[in-house]
Amino acid sequence: MLEIKSGHHRVGIYPALGGAIGYWLCQDTPIFYPLINSHLAKSANQIIAAYPLLPYSNRIADGKFEFEGRKYQLDVNALNEKDAIHGNAWEREWELESFSKNSVTMILCHEPDKDSKKQWPFSYKAQIKYTILETGLSVHLSLQNSDRCNQPVGLGFHPYFPRKDSVEVGFTAKTVWNNGNDGLPQGRMSIDGRWAFNEMRALTQDEQLDNCYAGWDNFAFIRWRYSNAYLSITSSHNFQHLVLFNPENKPYFTLEPVMNMNNAINMPEISDRGLTILKPGQRLEGNIFYSFSGD
Q1: What is the pLDDT along the chain (295 residues), one digit of tens a residue?
Q2: Which domain of life is it from (predicted)?
Q3: Residue pair 1/39 in contact by the 8 Å Cβ criterion
Q4: Is the pTM of this model over 0.90?
Q5: In the chain, where are the structural domains located?
């Protein structure tokens, strides 16, 4: 594990485990929530606090899709799942490109012909850069199409957050996709009632939520009331969606800035699905900044 530091902040990073973050601490306060997620097959026995999502976010139904006249079948990559989930970069060993006191850059070159598993049929070169400042954490993601054909791409980032001390959440979006019991989008709904976070409200442990918000305005705010701690999340405009996952009776939740909606590759009729078709040599990139303030 590598560690980068600035002021009271320390971030531990696993290049060999999907370029994931193992911890982010301000003094001794965990900002991301480290946990062992047995759902993720590759990292079943590792403590993970955040990880990149590429070349797509969330699910591809049954691991199947059709693109430009060809049909593809992906291997399932999560335990007890029938869908492919979160791309394949979180399962791979990233190569260290540069490392300094407060910044680390890693690259990943995916070549499907050299892959024993069918997790993504197109070649790409990805880069992730973490920079820790006295005010917070910067995450830069990029993916270049290194194949000879077009490929559909979406990027995202998946942090876990602690839900102690009466946590409150606020953000604004245009609509929300309601997931069915299978974790796939059932339909688009207007945002009101229990779906609304345009005014900050508590996120309780008994409130099960697993939804993808569309038309997100690229700003979200988290407040831990009793510890007087605050976190703001800002991103570049191409992160059009925000996934909120609040599992019932768990000590964590997620707010995931992502470009594509869930199962976007199988929903070409949705004009704002957030998937980008990269031509050979083209690059997709985006930035996310987490600004933390606490006693």
Answers
A1: 999 999 999 999 999 999 999 999 999 899 999 988 656 655 557 889 999 999 999 999 999 999 999 999 999 887 778 999 999 999 899 999 999 999 999 999 999 998 777 899 999 999 999 999 999 999 999 999 999 999 999 999 999 999 887 899 999 999 999 888 888 999 999 998 888 999 999 998 888 999 999 999 999 999 998 888 999 999 999 999 999 999 998 999 999 999 999 999 999 999 999 999 999 999 999 999 999 998 6
A2: Bacteria
A3: no
A4: yes
A5: 2-293
What is the domain class of 2-293 according to CATH? mainly beta
Alpha-carbon span 283 to 35, nearest angstrom: 32
Amino acid, res. 245: F
Please report, for residues 39, 154, 155, 259, the alpha-carbon distance to residue 286 in angstroms, rounded to integers and kept in the order given: 27, 10, 8, 9
CB 108, CB 95: distance < 8 Å: yes
- The residue type of 31 is I
